[in-house]
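Reading a protein record of the kind used here takes only a little practice. The record below shows the convention in full:
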Amino acid sequence: MLVLNATYEPINVCTVRRAVVLLLKEKAELIERSSRDLHAEYTTMARPVVIRLVSYVRVPRDTHKRKITRRAVFARDGWACQYCGSRSNLTVDHVIPRSKGGLSSWENIVAACAPCNRRKGDRLPNQIGMTPRKAPRTPHPAIFIHVASPTIPSGWRQYLPEAA
């Protein structure tokens, strides 16, 4: 279930159980519901798809400190090689190789297919003529929702930024 802040900003993904608890405690409101219901012994309620917190929760924006994972890099780069656009056999590549002083940072790591990664090897982009299609950058915080749920339900799309 997608969790929105009071400002309708996506902040998290949670289980159905957690969403129901937040709804029952009146800490959240139902925004989007499933066509299926949840049944308990004495009650039936709508199965949540998107909920919104009633009160605003301050979310620290420290994505520059977040751990860089393969899945996060792939999600940020649209699950495509940043050199040729291929969507298969993805790996990660340091644009400036670590052996040449490149850092393991969001601004230096891109998704690359294995053939492009092998072709680039341990060389600088200008030495081989391979520059990423988009400059690597720190991802928007909503990208971590794509990492938590790679297949985004249609009911979530209107609440997620296009760039994510």
Notes: The mean pLDDT is 91. Residues 75 and 150 are 8 Å apart (CA to CA). The longest strand covers residues 28-39.
